């Protein structure tokens, strides 16, 4: 069964996980608890994807094996994520791209898929002429099972630096102009990953679960 990378869209939401389906944590104007599924509205989620695609373009990448989703990463200009206004530190530029969340199947974690998805996102944003990309990170052991952010250790290991510090939710940044052209054949890398996934339909697990944060 072939593997491929494709844009993240509204049609994918039912393939992600029960928590991801309809999750509008980042898209909500209301102040929410920082956890996946804190706000759930499938209609609002579909409308958000449609609006962002129409106004800005593709807003994420999905790694697939056949019709199953191995993992995904979501991003868009910070202005499309109003929940960021309720976090302790705000992005310095609301028009700059913000990576919000990345989720990966348990079986596919710590095998390089997180790096591949991150590179796919950065390549897309670099091709659009972006200068900086931001991401909120989770720092420290959580008191909940998962959070809608990517781990700080993972991001810093892949070139991000702290832009606005915070003891729990720092804002990180990477300068795309400082990166070499991202020419790696990501589809070939995806095919080569030794992911021991069973044939049955799988349910993805948030990649920001604390075990293995630095080894996506």
Walk me through the structure.
It is a single chain. Strands 1, 2, 3, 4, 5, 6, 7, 8 and 9 form a nine-stranded mixed β-sheet that branches. The chain has a single domain (3-215), classed as Gcn5-related N-acetyltransferase (GNAT) (Aminopeptidase), CATH 3.40.630. A hairpin with a 2-residue loop joins strand 2 (60-65) and strand 3. The chain is globular and about 45 Å long. 38% of the residues are buried. The protein has helices at 42-55, 113-127, 152-157, 186-192; strands at residues 3-7, 60-65, 68-77, 97-104, 132-138, 150-151, 161-164, 171-175, 205-206. It is α+β, with helices and mostly antiparallel strands and 216 residues long.
């Amino acid at each position: 069964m072939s593997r491929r990378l494709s844009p993240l869209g509204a049609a994918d939401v039912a393939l992600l996980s029960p928590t991801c389906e309809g999750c509008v944590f980042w898209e909500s104007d209301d102040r929410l608890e920082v956890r996946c599924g804190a706000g759930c509205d499938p209609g609002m989620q579909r409308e958000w994807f449609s609006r962002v695609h129409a106004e800005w373009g593709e807003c994420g990448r999905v790694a697939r094996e056949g019709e199953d989703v191995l993992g995904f990463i979501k991003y868009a200009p910070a202005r499309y994520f109003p929940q960021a206004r309720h976090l302790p530190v705000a992005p310095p530029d609301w028009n700059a791209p913000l990576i919000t969340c990345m989720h990966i199947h348990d079986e596919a974690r710590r095998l390089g898929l997180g790096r591949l998805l991150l590179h796919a996102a950065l390549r897309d944003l670099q091709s659009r002429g972006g200068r900086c990309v931001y991401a909120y990170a989770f720092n420290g052991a959580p008191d909940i099972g998962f959070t809608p952010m990517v781990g700080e250790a993972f991001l810093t290991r892949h070139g991000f630096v702290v832009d606005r510090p915070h003891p729990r939710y720092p804002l990180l940044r990477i300068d795309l102009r400082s990166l070499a052209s991202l020419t790696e054949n990501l589809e070939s890398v995806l095919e080569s990953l030794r992911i021991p996934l069973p044939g049955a339909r799988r349910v993805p697990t948030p990649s920001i679960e604390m075990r293995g944060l630095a080894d996506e």
